[in-house]
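Entry 12.
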Amino acid sequence: MHDAVSLEEHIRYRYRQPKGVEQFGIEPIPEGKKTVGGFDIFSIILGLALNPGSILIGGLAVVSGLSFIQAVSAISIGMAIAVAAYTIMATVGVDYGLPGQVCARMVYGLRGAKWIPSLIRTVASIYWFAFQTVAGSIALVAVLERWTGHHYSLVQVSLLFAVLQAFVAIVGYDSLKHLSRAALPLKVGILLFALIVMATHNDPHFAPSAVLAYGGSEKSDWLLYVTWLNVTAANSLTMVTDSADFCRYSRGRFDMWWGTVAGKWGGTLFAAVLGAYGAAATQGKVANMFEVVAGLTHGWLPLLLFVVVIALDNWTINVLNLYTGGLSLSNILEGLGRFWSTLIISVLGVALSVFPGVVHGYTSYVGMLGNFFSPIAGILVADYLFVKRMRIDVVALFESDGPYRYWRGFNLIAVLWTVIGFLIYMFLIPQAWIQTLCTMLLTAGGYWLTTRLVAMHSKAMARASRPGDEREGAGDLAWDLAVR
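Predicted 3D structure (tokens):
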């Protein structure tokens, strides 16, 4: 075993990373550094789920024609579908201390994991950073203009906001943990205050009974309902390979499970209620809850509180987007190191944030990402649960000639079923069905069956399909990688 401090120094030297930032990237976390409890996981994941973008989604669902009840239930059910796959893959982080993208090598192969899930997730991280930045800036501008009476440039606010968020992500996991822990009570308290302001307003349309009774527009139907359900599931599935990233410092499975499920689903439900309440109270006219509440309050203190919560909300969610995007890029370009890969993702995300149009066409962008991540999620879960039986040969994830090489670095069966799943999503499953769930199940079943059949005749597949044995401790493996 090797001293964790010395190990970090070797990693820092290898990648030429500055002091004071998280040094671990693709390397496994040693057992001695796995000290994060369930509350910290809950704080991080809640920050991921409860943000201006998620609140805006609840409002957009009502503005599109859904009732309050339909919007909240569609978003909640969609999230529940995604949370199942998300939490299963988070177990990889707890058990092996590795980022999700590195563990994807066991499924897609050493090269396949880099150019399929990691590349797609890198692009998704940049988009989500820009979306959340612009969505938060829209809310921030609405409150500031109400407060000061002056006009503010959305582009300039987005740019400043993006740069501030990028700084924390570049520092690393400890900054995420401390920021999330400090922001949690403040965020929840102010957002509860916003909900109370709406529910107690003297306009009868804002009364809880009126909001609950709001029936949406005449165009509300099952197709619209399932569209928002599917979009929510697809949205969260784009992060299925990231779930391990937030949990690899966790001290045990129990802490990870309750922190992840409570934070992910609870945060999404609260955000949906807030956004849908504001939109339903305005009879489906205003999607931005912060704009609604800003119009109901008087004095500088409530508006200051909203500025604080918008900043904290956006800061926590977007720091996570950049952090996971950096780990994805470091899996593709192993010689970069976590710090430099996160810096590159930050620059690209900040650049995209100056285009307000990333908010418009949300359902189209997320649907497109869901086309890819629904089959990817199904394949990852099927392989980890039913093929590898939750046991990974960690050393083989870094061996050029190991069992996870498959065929020249690619698991052709996983690649094939990713393409098939994409086509299933696009052309075979009717839009009135839950495309994300159906694609996941069909792809998972097809991949599992094909793997079993091919393993009977292929030594490469049979070798890769065996549950892995731990050949080396995480600390020793991380040291070997650092001194290569």
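Annotation: The CA atoms of residues 345 and 439 lie 30 Å apart. The chain has 20 helices and no strands.
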